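User: Second chain of the day. Same drill as before.
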Amino acid sequence: MSGRIPGNEWVENPNRGTAAYVRAEAGVIYKPMLTYHQTVGMDLSKSYVANHPVPPHNWINPYRKTKWQTQELDLAAKALYQQQFGDHWSNKHYFNIQCEIVGVPVVNQETYTDDQLRWIAEEDTVPKVLWLRENGMDIDLTQVHYVTNSSGSASEYWPGRCSEHEMATFNGITQHIKWPYNDHWDCSVERLDKIAQYAREILGESEGEVDLLPDERAWLEAIYNTMGSVNHNTHYTHLMVDDILHLDPERHGPAEWYLRLLFGMNDTLAKTFELLKQTTAQLSEVDVNVEVIKNRITGLEVDHDAIKAAIDALPEPPPLEAA
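Assistant: Same format as last time:
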């Protein structure tokens, strides 16, 4: 198979990887993924790319619209730290295709414009997905590691990082900040979810998704950011909100939106109650009956009706109409 990305200029780098991918380890059959990094600087020269000691597969610049490739896609790149212990691989994870995006990851601040996110999707994400499919593989573009709170993430012990098993079983779009045993914080809170959304649209795979009016989206994102600010494992909250954003408004009413937000994507009620414990102070800002929630979740005591009543005390969302 050819490992070149269409539209990327090849830049020779003697340090590029020569190792094959590993198909499976510790009982897990790996699936392909896309890992995004940021250069932590705005200047990117061809000479720097040509001499980088641990290069990714390719480098893209959404500001100058340049695309350089230093590693064939059919061999493992070298841009992630590989722990000396544990059960799973990082760089050699089966077709973990890695890209450095020119940009500086800022804690809790987005830096790319919507046009730049769409350019990344069109010029990098989509060509890689098509290349994988041409070679009998695929990734799930609804699986996205989007982070809403990157505070304290410049540490391998940051609680928002995935576990080894979570990353080993992943099959979507991820970023350096989520890899276990790594201490980098890129791509912080950049909108990887929008990159995935635009990629689905370009590939014609977004049929049935509901596009919300601006006030509806702002309302949901306010709740999303509130929950994410106190829940470092933002993967759960993102999955919940993403699920809500794709509900059919003709079949789901406001109360069900709240229930899906708080209950829908958690594996057990225990996880839901733990999330509620962490968010009661923030929820009080929107006049929810905090005492009812606190009383009912103490000791993981289950009283679904009481919690539903507390959730119903939230202000009504805007009308759920497709744009």
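The chain has ten helices and eight strands.

User: Great, on to the next one.
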